[in-house]
Amino acid sequence: MKKKVLLMGASGSGKTSMRSLIFSNNPASSTARLGATIDVEQNHVRFLGDLILNLWDCGGQDAFMDSYLTTQRSTIFQHVGVMIYVFDAETREMNKDLEYYRDCLEGLTQCSPEAAVFLLVHKMDLVREPKATMFEKKREELQKASSGVVITVFGTSIYDESLYRAWSSIVHTLIPNAAVLNKHLNIVAAACSATEVILFERTTFLVIATSTSSTSSPSASTSSTSSSSASISSSTYAPSPPSPSDPHQMHLKRYERTSELIKAFKWSCSRVREEFHSLELDMYDFTAVLDEMTRNTYVMVVVHDPTIETAAIKLNIRMARKKFEELQGDSIGT
Fold first, then answer.
1. What is the pLDDT of residues 123-137, one digit of tens each?
2. Is-above-0.85 flag for pTM?
3. By three-state DSSP, how is residue 88 classified?
4. Distance between CA 6 and CA 3 in Å, rounded?
5. Are the beta carbons of 197 and 299 closer than 8 angstroms?
6. From the CB of residue 87, how many other CB atoms can be counted at a distance below 10 Å?
7. 72: left (phi over 0), alpha (psi -120 to 50) or beta
8. Mean of the pLDDT values across residues 278-304?
9. N or C: which end of the chain has fewer CB within 10 A?
10. Ranges of Low complexity compositional bias (predicted)?
């Protein structure tokens, strides 16, 4: 099963850098040497079992954009599962960017009306004014330019965890049996007496599913504003408020921070020619076990009960592997 993903935006907006960071395991510091994308670069990324992401990184120079909208229109915009349009947060040519975006959106709605649309306001680390205020202005501007099309907007940067939150939400929409995975993670959580269980894709370490309720899952970390809705990650630049009723409440950014930290640790291991396999953390107030679940996934089990032994958690993971291999091979899920 192939899912076509369009990655579009003006030249220099950071599309290739984020693709390199997410899919090629390169650190943010190495992206400066990447050259501009010429025309369209296609990459086939095996994500889960038979799910393959057909990623089209489209060069953003004016000549290429004009070609996509005229002679290559049907080729570019047909059979699209998701379009990701990237805007430079500090661009001085926003009007031109919006004009190209509207034209691309028109082509998408004509050729792939069921495609999801994600807009990334990128390079947020360069913004000098209060980030939340600036992001809200951009969100409203993009919502207005979308003319009734349902969109999801994220503020991102390659230098923090926000990029992982956005891409986890993007790929989550492409997984056909995500709800089934959530259900079975709840079973694992109950068996381990765990506070939370998270399933990651092996290579990218993007979050696929969690055992928590939908209000906390990466796929539901946005809020709609209307039928022509824009959805935003409201917690990207805001701390999570404490909850006196829940002593084990965890930070709202925990998923993307875990993705970022593990990817950085894996890269450090590769520098010394070592391979990452698993991780155990025994802290004073919780225990976390990160281990292989299937050939394409890792699972993290977080337990606050001090009476639960790490060996018991690992045994439950081992016993769950066969079922999750079956679920991964079932693109429909039952």
1. 999 988 899 999 999
2. no
3. strand
4. 10
5. yes
6. 23
7. alpha
8. 91
9. C
10. 213-238
